[in-house]
Specification:
single chain; about 200 residues; Helix Hairpins; three-stranded antiparallel β-sheet; 3 strands; about 10% strand; globular
Length: about 200
């Protein structure tokens, strides 16, 4: 059976300093992200055993666990690629045009996503997503890893608002962590995702 695997980081642990410390990045990737990968694989094995044993009693609970772990794996994989030691600044081209159309200007978008991340109650993520029904960009709050998201929305940029993402370095001042992330956002990666998410010719 194919299994989920932990992707390598596209940079060294210390590459995002001083904005994200090497210690927190090593812990975040090697422990927390790995736990979601391992958890997803374990649930797949349990579902396989339930099918083979013709025992569907716990399938509902296992499906919820699978959604939690796989979504955690997907969002973390996106998060690492959304960051770069050569990141920061502002986007350009069609991505910037889309942000200006749907948020007024980049400053307003940045403030909105930062506030979305800072005001999540409990654990979760803030997300810039392409919403295909309205054909527009939205910011979303993702509770835990998968609840309260717009169905069909395509994640483009995510900020991890789980405590393990920032507490070792920023303690209880998580808003400072989100402000720091803007210095390492990989706009090239976000722009590529934006291009792939939209139907050809839609701006």
């Amino acid at each position: 059976m194919p299994q989920y695997t932990l992707p390598d980081l596209p940079y060294d642990f210390g590459a995002l300093e001083p904005h994200v410390s090497a210690a927190i990045l090593e812990l975040h990737h090697g422990k927390h992200h790995k736990a979601y990968v391992d958890g997803a694989n374990k649930v797949l094995e349990q579902l396989d055993a339930a099918r083979r044993g013709n025992d569907a009693v716990h399938v509902g609970a296992l499906e919820r666990m699978l959604a939690f772990h796989v979504s955690g794996h997907v969002l973390h994989s996106l998060f690492w690629e959304n960051l770069s030691p050569k990141g920061g600044g502002e986007p350009t081209g069609e991505l910037l045009q889309g942000i200006q159309r749907d948020f007024g200007d980049f400053r307003g978008f940045r403030q909105q996503l930062t506030q979305a991340a800072s005001t999540i109650m409990g654990s979760g993520w803030a997300m810039l997503a392409w919403e295909p029904v309205g054909a527009r960009l939205l910011t979303l709050q993702v509770h835990d890893h998968q609840s309260s998201t717009a169905q069909g929305a395509v994640p483009l940029l995510v900020f991890d608002a789980w405590e393990h993402a920032y507490y070792l370095q920023y303690r209880n001042e998580k808003a400072k962590f989100f402000e720091a992330l803007w210095n390492v956002v990989n706009w090239g990666d976000v722009a590529q995702r934006y291009t792939r998410a939209r139907p050809s010719g839609r701006h």
